[in-house]
Amino acid sequence: MTAKIRPLPGGGMMLETGDRRIAMDPKFPVNADYVFISHAHFDHLPSTSWDANFIATRETAELAEVRGLRIGRLIEDPRDMTLVPTGHILGSAGLLVDGEIFYTGDIAGRPRAFLREAERVECRTLIIESTYGRPGYVFPSITELMEEVEGSIAAAYNAGRPAILMGYPLGKAQVLEYIARAWRPLISFRGVERYSDVYRGFGVDLPEPDVVVSKIEELLDLGRPALVIAPSTVRSRAVAIAERIGGIAIWFSGWALHWRGNYMGIPLSDHADHEELIEYSLASSAGTVLTTHGYAGDLARSLRSRGLDARPLSVNTMGIREDH
Fold this sequence. Notes:
alpha/beta, Metallo-beta-lactamase, Chain A, Rossmann fold, six-stranded mixed sheet, 24% helix
């Protein structure tokens, strides 16, 4: 099968195979037979909708609509293409085309809470994300991380103080709600709950918050033990308020692995780390690996050192906007 793969302006890529043009996570409207959306994070969603055949999971379509993108013509079971769960967030999937070319979107390297790791796929050409593709990004075990988190929350409660857990509002915040569900009262934000409600609608057993707030300043009167799930978009203000009310603030992100700040950072990521990306690529048995979206050049070099034919799809791919 002859195929052409090229990056698109603003992000995403175009796959041309046979008589089909398949746009993968394009940022802007593009002329294609199909438009594939791997998941509902902003850096993988189009900036606007248009008349097209969209391939995505139902979960991704509903989350995208919450984010303001209406997918009018949704194809969940495209011919000669297979949606493969990637474990990144609810509904995330990669696309296997003709059983030979697999585009991962973003993938998780390990289970977290109610999410599984990405399913392995054998293919001839693998197009893999590289968010944490630089050597040195190797995350601790989930068990180790959760022991540290549970200990910190317990210490805060024993001292009569609140604990503010900060994560990206779509994806990470729902994992935090799930893993911390035993702690009450639970306070969450409307910006988190609009996504959590979609998760609950698809059967994910997330706890209902006792209190929902709209602004971080509403926590200023919180002088008692409580668990707060806050979006990392208000991280600096959340940390300042935690200090004022005598609470603790914990930031959850893969980028926290090398974090050296004045508050706790936990490297709990919804992405695969460097070693997991290599293992995933080797398991694919792909003859060619294209790296994209992140440390693409670094990952390609690591894969070549393991004997794979790997190269970055594009050089300028480190424009990551999501707080994973």
